[in-house]
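Notes from hallway chat w/ T.B., transcribed later so I don't forget. T.B. wanted the structure written out for a chain they're using in a teaching module, and asked if we could keep both sequence and structure tokens in one place. Agreed to drop them here.
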Amino acid sequence: MSYRVQETAQVHDSAEIGAGTSVWELAQIREQAVLGTDCVIGRGAYIGTGVRIGDNVKIQNYALVYEPATLADGVFVGPAAVFTNDHNPRAVAADGTKKAASDWEAVGVDVAEGASIGARAVCVAPVRIGRWAMVAAGAVVTKDVPDFALVMGVPARQAGWVGRTGERLVTAGDGVWEDPKAGDRYRETETGLTEESK
């Protein structure tokens, strides 16, 4: 076995686990879930049926990732974050009868490369979190987040830009933003932020 699963974790036989991945205590990985290489799934985390997770993803303790979420390479999900999958949740139909799994259509959260979701944040599907974006702890995301955007609050609103290092970008004038730590530069356009070539 080229991956590690703690004894108290539950991993369905049909799930695919990549080399170097660690699944910690009490985590649950459901049917047909696919986890890439070198991932860390924290204590008590839940990965739903058919969820797709890239390489080098870290999902912290007690995070809940419901299907049909997709997480690209390098995504970080903080402790107790929640990805929902039902836009209009109800336990019963309008006539009061119990709803079955076939009575609803799951919608997912799509998280792009390198993005970070803070502790106890809630991403309300359907929603896309852009490349290298950052969702602050406790935020409730109800609409798509652009690449490199920093969002916070309830509901989440953009509060700035972040670079690949996670540092908040500072303006360099004329629509150019700079990472104060790495020196990388980004240009703001009508459609968002793009990286400038070095």
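Follow-up for T.B.: The radius of gyration is 18 Å. Might be a good example for the class.
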